[in-house]
Write a structure and sequence with these properties.
By secondary structure, the protein is mainly α. The chain has 17 helices and 2 strands. The N terminus is likely disordered.
Length: 438
């Protein structure tokens, strides 16, 4: 009995020590977070940055082999991941507060601290200091640091930096929805993502207004897309479907007509809804074969059940994944096929039609867009022009169908009529935008 009970006692003691160790770390972490929160609210940003640098960087040059270096003492018996989680949350405490108080310059300065810290390192014989420097090196070379850098990319103007910087809002949204991130990171990412989207919508609306005006103030508002003057024609082609056959109207009719249908009936009508108004027969056949047939075979165990909001959301998320990326690692075959055949607008309109019948699927769509951006991030701009073209059209289309901006096409020449066919004289119309009154 004594021999058999010994491992159990040792196991219990180990469990207690492990819990105590974790509790001690949490207590220390909360003290650090509270300390930084007090500093960022009371001190000048320059002083906060100096203190942050002293805590996490300078101490790695000051420590000796006999004394643990500053704040790193709390990680002596913990893992590198514990250190990284602590450092991340500390960074986002500062970023979140500076973002709120519009002290954006210091966010860039914070990020630069890590980029520059190697230049100040001195040789050390301490194995512990070498270990902690390795941890800091690993952080600077990690995705966590790349996510931090997104908060500096807001200053990149069109044509500067990596091409991916133009689509930072989607990468930030993905951060804000990742429950593994610290709450401060989620909040900071959500706010900056919204800011960048609102800025794009405003710039687009102002550019459209000024580009159709003879006013000399046209140069005050630049084109926020990289499509050049073609953006105006694209917008007209998107906005043309108004009235009885608008995308919103068709979506509302579809939702009402399918409310009490079985899941199987719903899938059949969903096929008709998606391919309605797709003019290229080749694309219709591709969609039926590679997208809609998959949907019919999906979740057949629910076919006899009445469609619910949950089934609608899951179906829309499934379609979005098939049209973008199914494994979150690489683009789906259908995404590559549609774009390689020159149908970026068709793909964007399909995604729009899905969102118009299920607004709750929007977050999943934007996360898949972020996955695609991360995949193509490693390629130079010249090799990604077809993907960039899709992203630009996606940006513009979803800005046009945003909830707080309304675009209308107004006929300027009396001898021209608007029809469901986009092959009419677009030059005879002007686009007008206005904020919707809630």
């Amino acid at each position: 009995m004594t021999t058999n009970s010994l491992p159990t006692n040792q196991g219990n003691q180990h469990l207690v020590r492990s819990k105590d160790k974790q509790l001690n770390l949490q207590v220390a972490q909360e003290k650090i977070y509270s300390f930084l929160m007090a500093l960022v609210k009371q001190w000048q940003p320059e002083d906060v940055l100096r203190e942050f640098k002293r805590l996490f960087i300078d101490c790695l040059d000051a420590g000796s082999s006999h004394s643990p270096p500053g704040i790193y003492e709390i990680f002596l018996t913990n893992s590198e991941q514990d250190f990284r989680n602590t450092l991340k949350r500390c960074c986002y405490i500062l970023i979140n507060n500076w973002e709120t108080s519009r002290k954006h310059k210091y966010i860039q300065d914070l990020i630069d601290l890590f980029a520059n810290y190697k230049l100040e390192q001195r040789i050390s014989n301490s194995s512990r200091i070498k270990l902690f420097r390795t941890w800091l090196d690993n952080f600077v070379n990690s995705n966590d640091y790349k996510e931090l850098q997104l908060f500096a990319n807001r200053y990149d103007e069109q044509g500067r930096g990596h091409w991916v910087n133009r689509y930072t809002s989607y990468l930030l949204l993905a951060q804000s929805l990742d429950q593994n991130n610290p709450k401060e990171q989620q909040e900071a990412a959500r706010k900056l993502s919204k800011h960048l989207k609102d800025k794009f919508k405003f710039q687009l609306a102002m550019y459209i207004a000024r580009s159709q005006s003879n006013s000399s103030s046209i140069n005050r508002y630049r084109n926020p897309s990289i499509l050049g003057d073609n953006v105006l024609r694209l917008i007209k082609a998107i906005v043309v479907k108004k009235g009885e056959f608008s995308y919103e109207n068709i979506a509302n009719i579809f939702v009402k007509q399918t409310q009490n249908q079985s899941f199987q009936e719903f899938k059949g009508n969903l096929q008709k809804y998606l391919i309605f108004s797709v003019e290229q027969q080749q694309v219709v056949e591709t969609l039926k074969e590679q997208l809609l047939d998959k949907l019919f075979a999906w979740r057949q165990e629910y076919d006899e059940e009445t469609i619910t909001k949950e089934l609608l959301l899951r179906s829309c998320n499934r379609l979005i994944d098939c049209l973008t990326t199914e494994n979150r690692q690489e683009p789906s075959p259908l995404f590559v096929l549609l774009l390689s055949q020159g149908h970026p607008l068709t793909l964007v309109i399909l995604l729009l039609k899905i969102i118009l019948i299920c607004r709750n699927a929007r977050s999943n769509l934007e996360m898949r867009i972020a996955d695609l951006i991360r995949y193509y991030d490693k390629y130079p701009e010249d090799e990604c022009k077809w993907v960039i073209n899709f992203l630009e059209i996606f940006n513009i289309t979803f800005a046009i169908y945003a909830e707080n901006v309304e675009y209308n096409l107004i006929k300027m020449k009396e001898d021209t009529e608007i029809t469901g066919n986009t092959e009419f004289n677009l030059d005879a119309y002007r686009v007008f935008s206005q904020l919707k009154v809630k």
